[in-house]
Amino acid sequence: MPSETTITTPIPTSVSRDAVLAALHDHDRYIRTTCPQLIDYAHVSSNPAAAPGGLPCDVYEVTDKRPIGQTTFRLTLTNQPGEGIDALIEGKAPTGSMVIKSRWRVLEGAPQHALEERVSIDANMLMNKMIKGNVEKSHPEQHQKFMM
Predict the structure, then answer these.
(1) Which among 21, 45, 111, 131 would be 20 to 30 A from 74, CA to CA?
(2) pLDDT at 35
């Protein structure tokens, strides 16, 4: 059963909603911000209507450093106009395969807007717990980087 978590970060009033959306839609910035141990990445393909709803998506192969060496995974990014971005990670670790889906949304709010990330992790029980803990620990800092 997938493990889920949500991280919500208020957007400072000095940062516009459009600026945060632009940062999320910048795939180079997205990859460099969400993969702090990045070794390299390459654009694999673009599909003009492959994502749900017929939106265009871009597929990347990302290699990053892990405590036990390095790992390569497939990352599919789909910009959601006026809302945020959807990310799909498909990878294989020594402990098995994993699928991580995240929906980043810039939420309207009063007195301020917020950046919300909903994450669903589908892996074996040990990996679910480890990945969820990592997301909850490291992603609030990633949110701040999108607002700089």
Answers:
(1) 21
(2) 86
Which residue, chain included where needed, has tokens 């290699």?
63
Residue 143: pLDDT band by 50, 70, 90 thresholds?
confident
The span from the CA of 139 to the CA of 41, in Å, is: 20
Write the secondary structure of the chain as one string of H (helix), E (strand) and C (coil): CCEEEEEEEECCCCCCHHHHHHHHHCHHHHHHHHCCCEEEEEEEEEECCCCHHHCCEEEEEEEEEECCEEEEEEEEEEEECCCEEEEEEEEEECCEEEEEEEEEEEECCCCCCEEEEEEEEECCHHHHHHHHHHHHHHHHHHHHHHCC
- Indicate if the pLDDT at residue 70 is higher than 90: no
Domains of the chain: 3-146 (3.30.530.20)
